[in-house]
Amino acid sequence: MRCPFCAHDNSQVKDSRPTEDNTAIRRRRQCDGCGARFTTFERVQLREIMVVKSGDKREVFDRAKIEQSVALACRKRGIAQERLDQLVSGVQRQIETLGETEIPAKAIGEMVMEGLRGLDSVAYIRFASVYREFTEARDFEEFAGSVRDAAKQ
Predict the structure, then answer these.
(1) Separation between Cα atoms, residue 41 and residue 88, nearest integer Å
(2) What single string gives the DSSP state of each residue in the chain?
(3) In sequence order, what are the residues at sequence separation of 6 or more whose Cβ sits closer than 8 angstroms to the Cβ of residue 6?
(4) Radius of gyration of the chain (CA)
(5) pLDDT greater at residue 139 or residue 51
(6) pLDDT class for 10, splitting at 50, 70, 90?
(7) Close Cβ partners of 149 (under 8 Å, ≥ 6 residues apart)
(8) Among 3, 43, 10, which residue's Cα sits nearest to residue 26?
(9) 89-112: per-residue pLDDT in tens?
(10) Where are the domains of the chain?
(11) How many of the other CB atoms lie within 10 Å of CB of 3?
(12) What residues pair up with 52 in beta bridges, in sequence order?
């Protein structure tokens, strides 16, 4: 594993343990070159999944993009990192269990929105505002109103 600090090619594993949801192995490593310590995660990948974006552009599924989007939507909301990891792992499992080699980006967005709906209403609205491309304040008002109405039921 290449060191993220000095780019040295060799590192030693100092500690390995499963993550909270048992979907990955967390490894603490130490660089043989500079001695810096860093963490890596090893996850199972059943097959390469392609994401079909608008305009039929295709790219390889990247879990990190979902992690970034969820982290941004949940920023300053006081949600534990473990819960965010569980949400992302859940979305990834849903995608993998579909058994498809291609999945539309819109389907992934809907899965993330569904997960955020149960996690935090503000994060849900934040994500939806970007995902559904809100352009006016009225778009926020209508969507927030539908979230509020759903919460009352």
Answers:
(1) 14
(2) ---TTT--S-EEEEEEEE-TTSSEEEEEEEETTT--EEEEEEE---S--EEE-GGG-EEE--HHHHHHHHHHHTTTS---HHHHHHHHHHHHHHHHHT--SEEEHHHHHHHHHHHHHHH-HHHHHHHHHHHTT--SHHHHHHHHHHHHHHHH-
(3) 31, 33, 34, 36
(4) 19
(5) 51
(6) very high
(7) none
(8) 43
(9) 999 989 988 888 999 999 999 999
(10) 1-44, 47-152
(11) 20
(12) 58, 104
Taking the C-alpha atoms of residue 88 and residue 115, their distance in angstroms, rounded to an integer, is 9
The size of the chain, in residues, is 153
CB 66 within 8 A of CB 48: no
In whole angstroms, give the CA distance from residue 106 to residue 134: 15
Q: Which residues of 93-131 are buried (b: 16+ CB within 10 A; e: fewer)?
A: eebbeeeeeebebeebbebbbebbbebbbbbbbbbbbeb
**CA separation for the pair 153, 147 (Å, rounded):** 10
**Cross-strand bridge partners of residue 47:** none
